[in-house]
Amino acid sequence: MPGGIMSVTEKFVSMEWGAAPEDPREVVAWLDGHARKFGHFIGGEWRKPADGKYFESEDPSTGEVLASVTQGTSADVDAAVKAARGAFSGWQKIGGHARARYLYALARLVQKHSRRLAVLETMDNGKPIRESRDLDIPLVARHFYHHAGWAQILESEFPGFVACGVVGQIIPWNFPLLMLAWKIAPALAAGNTVVLKPAEFTPLTALAFAELCSEAELPAGVVNIVTGDGETGEALVIHEDVDKIAFTGSTEVGRAIRKATATSHKRLSLELGGKSPFVIFEDADLDSAVEGLVDGIWLNQGQVCCAGSRLLVQESVSEALLDKVRRRMSTLRVGAPLDKAVDVGAIVARVQLERIDRLVKQGVAEGATCWQPEGFLMPKRGLYFPPTLLSNVHSASTVAQQEIFGPVLAAMTFRTPREAVELANNTTYGLAASVWSESVNVALQVAAQVKAGVVWVNSTNLFDAACGFGGYRESGYGREGGREGMLEYLEPAWFAKAPALKADKSARGDEKSGAEKAGKADGHNGTLSIDRTVKLYIGGKQARPDSGYSFEVHGSDGKLLGEAPLGNRKDIRNAVEAARNAAAGWAKSTAHNRAQILYYIAENFSQRSEEIAGRLARVVGAKQARREVAASIERVFSYAAWTDKFDGLVHNPPMRNISIAMNEAIGTAGVLCPEDAPLLGFVATVMPLVAMGNVVVAIPSERYPLIMGDLYQVFETSDLPGGVINMVSGRSTELLRVLAEHADVDALWSFGDDAQSVMAKSLSAGNLKQVFTNEGRAIDWFDAAQGEGKWWLRHAVQVKNVWVPYGE
Length: 808
What we know:
By secondary structure, this protein is α/β, with parallel strands linked by helices. Helices cover 42% and strands 17% of the residues.
């Protein structure tokens, strides 16, 4: 056309948009109204830092300083925790309805100030305003609305549960206000008070939320905001008067928090890193998959823990798909995040930008082919990285294994669904996955096999307050959102009040092996009784200990009852290997079949109840022995009953999907059984795991490990597959250490003294296995309200939320 003017058709084809900047004046006025300087929000008021130190919060798209924010110290954290503790009793007393009204008020205020919060989030974080405005802030309001409902019905839905107390929460910089809502809303709904530390790069929307708390007239001290860097977070983690820590961030920091909290009784939930697979099969709608991929990896510049950063595409369509991906990447707009026409905004900080650049170069050095759109006009100032595709990536490459946390996609191919699952699970993480196929059979088959806490079918990056979110393996444990998210901030009332477990010196008082001891088995009428020496039970077979030694077991009267094998590291290794070999088959067996085997175990226990009680009586007395056997039979029956009834849920989020919350087995679990009830304690801790499809390596009571002989004779006659339950006796603390450090153990249950609980938690940090302990507290194993039921079953499963398209 004359004069260089483009026609409508040419304009449509080029898709060259003019700038559509969002007006930041209201946010600028808000910042100026605070003189661009913020203190901590403690006890309902703004406070200056204890040592007077501040740091600057910058706009990553321009480098301009937005405000100065306080650098929190241990003194500031202590003041916040004291304020939270002081507010706790009052917050409890007002009841669920009053708490619901406050949460409802916060939701309304988020909506009232939504535009200002969205602009502030974008300026502080660098994400495009469209994402802040259309995704983050609406979901923040949704969380407060949803949890207002939980607060209202708390007593009827969670009977017998109480709030943890003072909760310390540490959130990341990628979704600052949304992560705050994920943490604060369920904590308040459950009746806890909160001390929250936002990320040092993005503290401003948390401080804006503090103002909303004042506007809602939330009681002083219920929510406290302390800003600062990692040292501030560390002070919160180790504070002695904090009852729970909820952390979202890197796996490395999560591992450090696990170790730091091990010596305390703090509850812990961790939502950590990910390297999520984006799996595309040849029958998928490739155009839809590409659009999903754009949301999966370039949302928030790829700075998303569940970003679909590993593209796994079926070989037959790989070239066609990658061509489509490159064409789509060429249309992405990178620029000022306040521009409503921009797709990819700024990287949050220079240190993150440098990390992304370093990892991309390392991937190329390891053989990957790097492609970036040609002719990209990158902004002249600010922190930006172009959308990047790395193809020809091998599965062991750094960029296929490490979390890049940037707009970088690593592409690999597969041939069969089985290979796709193997590649998807070839990572230490397990946060999320996205599966694309027009075959519902293929999609759901793969979804069931992928080790991830969230799986999206023909969709990606869907979130809702009603649906749990969290990971498997080194992506952490615990859930945020939904019923399971509420349970992270509650605990059984009886457990909160349980007394400390009294030390039992009878079990571990003598550390000499049987080979070093002299003594004879108890005789009758001057004749020597037949020697009773049991074996280990590994892979469905009786096995001699690798050490070649045994240790003596004495009755309550000091008389020798027999000898038990002295297991060691190699025996634990063999038992874990046997368990893992049995894991897939046992987890895939139907709940009905597992129930039948448990019923059979109970039946065989009943047939042998008198002889088992007779032997047990010599350790615990005749009365307790009879009670233990009777209670054990009943306990096995109960878990047989629960096996096909502890079901998941179907959530109905406000979108055209349903989310199926499946209770899945964790995998291989190590169990340190309690000393005080040798038979019942074993049954009460092992059976819920087995019922839910886990396999177990158990350390029986050191007080009476001879119970193994009775147990494995029952198991061998009850059709229990070999390797589902394995038993290794020995010095319990030594064996616990081996289980805690073993990389192939997925969960660890410890029901010993406080020192053993500390050991279980601290040494399990290597692979971040899920740990469940009695925290050194006494449990009445004979009381079904304490030693049986859903609380145990919840610890025996991990929830996978599978999002499936549904309806219009």
